Amino acid sequence: MSKNLRNQALSDILDIEKIRVVNSPIDEAHGLPNECYTSSDYLLYEKEKIFKDKWTVVGVGNAVKNIGDVKPYNLLGIPLIILRDKDKKIRVFHNVCSHRGFKLLDEPCSLKNVLRCPYHSWSYDFDGKLVATPHIGGLNIHTIEEFDKSKSNLKEVRSKVWMDMIFVNINDNEIEFDKYIKPLEDRWSKFISKENQNLLVHSSDYGYFSLDVKSNWKFAIENYCESYHLPTIHPELNKVSNINDHYHIQGLPNRFAGQGSNKYNQPVKGNRIFNNFKNWPKDLTKKAEYIALFPNVMIGLHINHFYVFWLEPISISKTKEHLEMYYIGEENANGKELESMRKENLKFWKEVMSQDIKATEGMQAGRNSPIYNGGNFSPVMDGPTHQFHKWVASNLI
What we know:
By secondary structure, this protein is of the alpha+beta class. Helices cover 28% and strands 26% of the residues. β18 and β19 form a beta hairpin. The longest helix has 28 residues.
C-alpha cells in the first residue's frame, strides 16, 4: 500500500491531523486521539502497521523448553505456532494446514516427531516440511506423482529469540533484529554482557503471573514509561523510591523508552541475597532500569533478577498481561533455599502491576469523552511517554 493510500485509509477512521500533532515538541503536542483506543476499525489498521510490520513479542522460550514442545498463539486473530525443533531452536509457523486451511493446534503439547493436522492427517516435521499425506491418491495411496510435497510446507514466520523473548516480524519487512536491538544492547552492556544473558534462568515455581485488563494495550506502555504516577498509584513504593530517585530513558533511535531508579533495594532473607550479575559495576548496584521496547514488551533489569512483562492485545479495550521472572543461575531460580524469597519477589511485582490496572482502566474509560484532545504532556515528567506516542504516530502515517 502506498503512503497516500495508507493515509487515506487512516483518514477514514480519524482526523489525520490529530496524528500529526503528536510529533510536535512536547509542550505543543497532544497525545494520540481517542480513536486509537476506542475504534475497532483503527485496531485493524494498527494490526497491520504495528503488530505485523514491527518486531513483536509473542511469548518466551521457557514456554517451549524441550524438543517437540509446541504452543499456539493468536496475534490479534493471526494463528501462530511456537515450536522447539530438534536442534533446540525456537521456530514460529503460521498455524494453518496447507491442504484445506485447518487450524493445526489449539492447545500446548509435546510432539514426538510430527505435527499432524486433525482434518486429513497431513503431517509436518519440526522444520515445517510436509512429510506425510495419507490417502492423497485414494485409500492407502499416500503419495502421487502429480503432487509435490515441497510446495506445501508450513509457512515460517521470521523470528528471533533475545533474552528468552520471542520476537516475530509477520510481514518480513523490518530491519534485521540485531540492528533493531543494538541500541538497547549497547545501553545495557555496562550492566550485563551477552555471555551473562545466558545465565538467566526462568523460575518454575514463582516465575509467572498474568493479569486480564479492561484497557487498550498502549496504556500499559504509556504508564510504564514514566514515574510521575508513583505518589498516587504506588504510595508504598514511592516511600522507598520516589519520583526524585528516578530518571528518564529515551532511547535513540526511537525504539524504546522508560525510566530508571537510583534506589533499588535487593530482597534479603537473613544473610542471603540472590546472586548478582557478574561484572555489574560496583558503583551502580542501586540502579535498576524499566524499559518499554516498542510495541509490546516491558522489561525490568535489576542487579539480581530480570523480568519480561509482555502484552497480548485481545481487543481494542482488552489486554492480557504476562510477567515472566528470571534469576541468575539454577540455584537462585529454582533452588529450595531461596523459594520464599522468590515467592515474595513475585508477590511484590504482582502487587505493583495490579495497582497499575487502576490507572490503565481509568484512562480507557476517560477516552470515551468527546472533548478529550488526546492529552497534554508535562514537559518535565512525560518525555518517555511522549516518545512512545510519537513512535506509534510515525508508524501510522
